[in-house]
Write a structure and sequence with these properties.
about 350 residues, Rossmann fold, six-stranded parallel β-sheet, 14 helices, 13 strands, globular
């Protein structure tokens, strides 16, 4: 199988794409891949490390606050479209796949106009602008949430789940000692997204000092953009700070409790690994989609939600204390997460792609 795949901007788009690449390699080891990403976002650093051929295009998202900046956005879209046409023609794939982020816009659009078969995947409950635009050009569409299906043409949309859930189950845990963590203490794992959140980091700097003398440990993944500011502070000996963990699911397997944003990929991994969680949705994302993502878990009593505006005083520490020391509640939450499982999503998507390619 020859595959062009594109996803960009955040780990929430990139890691599902990598999970599918891994599944295709497992099923068809002789497959060849080409990844198209942006020149200045996370994928430019992550994808080459996986020895996947990588091409970049210069492309930017639409600016909702300053419409004049969108003249540049439109110009780069047109230039990227023509560059993508050449890349696609030269590689001559069996299929072109998009996993979200504005970088996928010119890739899928060019593929459709060249009459190549295409597949796009939406991770969030509320679709991104790129996937809404591309839905009319995609051969088939996969979604992670059942509620997403109503946003796309019914005849070509399939509820697949997020391919990262299968990858999460199959990955081995990172040894806790690699991060100086104790094997004998419970772990609260705090993650605020692959890039981090400056507002949340400010709030957590004060909160982390309240974990002193707790009988559990805390690992806070700041995100790469906020790490330098956070690490300047002194924290209790049971609190550990790191900028980023590339294979996050391997550390998640050590977690007794997670505190996290509500990115769709992280939630799919939480469900797959049965991890009770405290969700803090980002209020800064389009259409408040993180809140809606998280409510799928909250409504099933598989998670607790605290909105950012309510993070006052010691509410987060008190909530963590109450939950991590309530074995009965933790066991109930794990059981409820089972009802949300979508097994073998990556395999399901592979089978859909194989069917698209084989169709005459």
């Amino acid at each position: 199988m020859r595959v062009i795949i594109s996803a960009g901007g955040t780990g929430g788009h990139i890691y599902p794409a990598l999970a599918l690449i891994n599944k295709i390699k497992e099923k068809e080891p002789n497959s060849e891949f080409l990844y198209i990403g942006t020149h200045n976002r996370m994928e430019k650093d992550i994808i080459p490390k996986h020895n996947i051929p990588f091409e970049t295009i210069e492309i930017y998202g639409f600016n909702r606050k300053n419409m004049f900046k969108n003249f540049k956005t439109l110009k780069t879209f047109i230039n990227s479209y023509y560059k993508c046409k050449k890349i696609i023609k030269d590689f001559n794939p069996d299929i072109v796949i998009g996993f979200g982020g504005y970088v996928t816009g010119p890739v899928i659009y060019a593929a459709k106009n060249l009459d190549y078969k295409t597949f796009i995947h939406e991770q969030n409950s509320i679709p991104g602008k790129a996937n809404l635009f591309l839905s009319k050009y995609a051969t088939r569409i996969g979604v992670s949430f059942k509620s997403s299906t109503k946003h796309f043409p019914e005849y070509k949309t399939i509820f697949t789940g997020n391919p990262c859930n299968e990858d999460a189950v199959n990955q081995p845990a990172i040894p806790k000692k690699d991060y100086h963590l104790s094997e004998h203490k419970k772990l609260v794992y705090i993650v605020m997204g692959s890039l981090g959140s400056s507002k949340m980091s400010e709030l957590l700097i004060e909160t982390l000092n309240k974990f002193a003398k707790k009988d559990y440990e805390v690992l806070f993944v700041t995100g790469q953009e906020t790490y330098e500011d956070v690490k300047k502070n002194k924290f209790p000996s049971n609190v550990f700070i790191v900028p980023y963990i590339e294979q996050q699911t391997r550390m998640m397997k050590n977690a007794d409790l997670m505190v996290t944003r509500c990115g769709a990929t992280t939630l799919s991994e939480i469900i797959a690994l049965n991890i009770p969680s405290i969700l803090i949705p980002s209020p800064y994302v389009p259409d408040n989609h993180q809140y809606k993502n998280g409510m799928d878990l909250v409504n099933k009593d598989g998670a607790i939600m605290i909105e950012e505006k309510d993070l006052k005083g010691d509410i987060l520490v008190r909530t963590i204390d109450e939950l991590i020391n309530d074995e009965k509640r933790m066991k109930t939450m794990k059981k409820n997460l089972d009802s949300l499982k979508i097994p073998k999503s990556a395999t399901k998507i592979y089978e859909i792609i194989r069917e698209i390619i084989d169709r005459k």
